[in-house]
Amino acid sequence: MRTRTLTILLLALATRGFAQVSELGFTGGVMYYIGDINPTRHYPPHTHPAFGLQYRYNIDQRFALRIQGLYGNLEAYDSSSPDTLQRIRNLGFRTSIFEASFLMEINFFKYRGLTKDSKQWSPFVFFGMAYFHMNPQGKLGDTWYDLQPLGTEGQGTTAGGAPYSLDNISFPFGAGFKFALSEKLDLQLEWGLRRTNTDYMDDVSGRYVSNSTLNFETGPLTAQLADPSIHRLDGINSGRARGDSQTNDWYQYTGLTLSFRLNRFTECDAIWDHMRNRSK
Q1: Which of 266, 245, 252 has its CA nearest to residue 200?
Q2: Across-strand partners of 65?
Q3: Taking CA atoms, which of 144, 182, 187, 200 is between 20 and 30 Å from 220?
Q4: Closest CA relative to residue 25, chosen from 265, 266, 256, 263
C-alpha cells in the first residue's frame, strides 16, 4: 500500500509542472493621477479610460504571475482645485501612459481547482514592478507643448539640473476579486495604486526659476508655461516652491478583466492536494 501511495505521489509531482493554468485577458477601466496638482483628491474630475492586455500564469490555486500592458491618459489642473493657492498657481498638464508590469497575485482561497475545498471565486491581493513611459504636456492658447524639453524648472540652463527621464519605474499594488463565469472564462475586478520613482509626471517638483533667466536662455514659451500665474511678470515667485520635491507622484488604475483560460487544473493537482493532506 505504501509503495502504491509513493508511486502515485511521485507521478503527481512529475506531472505537476504541466498542470499550471495559463490565461489571456483584456482589461479595461479608469486611471487617474495623484501628485502636486492633485495632492489629496481621489477620483478627480479628470479620470480617463484605460485598457490593456494581460497574460496570467497560475502557479497553483493560490499563487499566480501576471504580465500586463496598460495604456491610458492622465491630466490635472490647478484651476479645478478647491484650494485658492493652487488656482492662483494655475499649472496644469496631460500625459499619455504606457505601462508594462510584472505582478504576483495571491488568492485568499484555492481558486478554480478540482479539490473539495477549492472555490469558483476568491478575493486576492497583488504587488510587483512596472516600467512606464510618460510625456507631460502643457497648454498655451490652443496648442499643447511637450514640457520636458523646455526645462520649466531650469533644467539645462545656468540655474542647473538635468532633464528628467520620460522612462520610469513604478511599484503597483492593490486588491481585487475574481470569479469563474464558465469553465473557460474568468472575470476579475481590481483596484490598484502605482507608486512611481519620479516627481515629474506633472512636470512639477522643485522651485520657480527666475522668469527673466528662462526668457533669456530658453525663450518666452518656457517662461510662460513654467509660471502661468498672475505673478509671472512681477518676479515674486522666483525661488519659491513650485511643487513638493519630497513626494513622488502616483497613479491609480481600477478595472475589469475578462480572461480566457488556455488550459485547466488537472486531476494531478487534486491527487497532489489529496496526498499532501494525508501526509499531515
Answers
A1: 245
A2: 57, 104
A3: 200
A4: 256
